[in-house]
UniProtKB/TrEMBL annotation:
Protein name per the record: HMG box domain-containing protein
The HMG box domain, residue ranges: 255-324
GO MF terms held by the record: DNA binding
Keywords: DNA-binding, Nucleus
Pfam families reported in the protein's UniProt record: HMG_box (PF00505)
Bias (Low complexity) ranges: 72-85
SUPFAM superfamilies to which the protein is assigned, alphabetical: HMG-box
Biased composition (Basic and acidic residues): 131-140
GO terms for cellular component: nucleus
Length: 329
């Protein structure tokens, strides 16, 4: 039988032995795990090495394969290039070129068409109406008529008095027309001395008007004055412009205008004395009306002497115009 002390010692020994066994087992397990870990790490490293090597191989294969493809493509193209020389294969290329040329022609035609349309539109401009033509002709005739004469001063005592009465007033034409009755009444009540003063003023105005008009006429070319007078005759005959009596430019440098056949007939009838009684009873206007109606009833044979006189006078005028050469100063 063991004593209590021995039992305790055996127990201690058993515990220590068991502890040592557990420690050794733990150490052995740790060593195994470490070995396993080392093995797994090395295997991982090896796998990584294998993978990197495989990648480099694939990259090398792709890089090595690319030149082969390009060279193959080049060789194929080089191989096809001689094939283009063959007539059977060259025809499609020419066909494609021939197709491309009409496309350019079609573009050029399509671009040229709008220009043709634009020209057609311009040529299709609406013609001027008769009213527009008349307006344009009146405008051109007025420009050629040269209505630029200097303004004339009052050429009568009554006009001079009206100018003096309205000179300092700023009135509209309607107000002036309303005051004309008052001005007329004042004119009638003027003394004789005032009327003589206005008559003297009119004489001075006439001299000033003549000098200004002569200077204006001499500043114009004779050819321009002829054109202006022709335009004034045309305006009066076709459009009755101005509505008052026609006034032409008088120039001593120009030859006398030719007399028409009707004017020759009128002069002959006035000097015949056949209308003296009518002139004394009805007046000059009735005499002119009677002469005009008589001219219309004449036959061509009866008008021929007066037409011949007009032709002779026109030849005289044309010769004088060409001799004076009004186109030159």
């Amino acid at each position: 039988m063991l004593t209590s002390i021995g039992r305790a010692a055996t127990r201690r020994l058993a515990v220590t032995a068991s502890r040592r066994a557990a420690v050794t087992q733990v150490r052995v397990a740790a060593c195994g795990l470490g070995q396993q870990l080392n093995l797994s790490q090395s295997s991982l490293n090896r796998a990584k090495g294998y993978a990197s090597a495989a990648q480099t191989k694939t990259v090398a294969k792709t890089t090595a394969a690319k030149p082969k493809k390009t060279t193959a493509a080049k060789t194929t193209t080089k191989a096809k290039a001689p094939a283009k020389g063959v007539k059977a294969k060259a025809k499609p290329a020419t066909k494609t070129k021939a197709k491309a040329k009409p496309a350019t022609k079609a573009k050029s035609k399509s671009k040229a068409k709008p220009a043709v349309k634009a020209k057609a539109k311009k040529s299709r401009a609406k013609p001027l109406s008769e009213a527009a033509k008349e307006r344009l002709e009146r405008k051109q005739l007025k420009q050629a008529a040269n209505y630029t004469e200097p303004p004339s001063l009052a050429n009568s005592a009554w006009k001079a008095y009206v100018v003096e009465q309205t000179k300092a007033r700023t009135q509209s034409p309607s107000d002036l027309r309303g005051n004309m009755a008052e001005i007329s009444a004042a004119w009638k009540s003027l003394p004789a001395s005032e009327i003589r003063r206005f008559e003297q003023l009119v004489e001075q105005n006439k001299q000033a008007n003549a000098a200004a008009y002569k200077a204006w006429v001499e500043s114009q070319k004779p050819a321009d004055i002829i054109l202006a007078n022709n335009a004034r005759y045309m305006l009066k005959r076709k459009y009755n412009i101005p509505k008052c009596q026609l006034k032409v430019i008088t120039d001593d440098r120009l030859p006398k205008r030719p007399t028409t056949a009707y004017l020759h007939f009128t002069k002959a009838r006035w000097t015949s004395g056949d209308y003296s009684d009518l002139l004394s009873t009805a007046g000059a206007k009735q005499v002119m009306t009677k002469i005009g109606s008589e001219w219309k009833t004449l036959s061509e044979a009866e008008k021929k002497p007066y037409i011949d006189l007009a032709k002779v006078d026109y030849e005289r005028y044309s010769n004088e115009v060409s001799f004076n050469d009004p186109g030159k100063d």
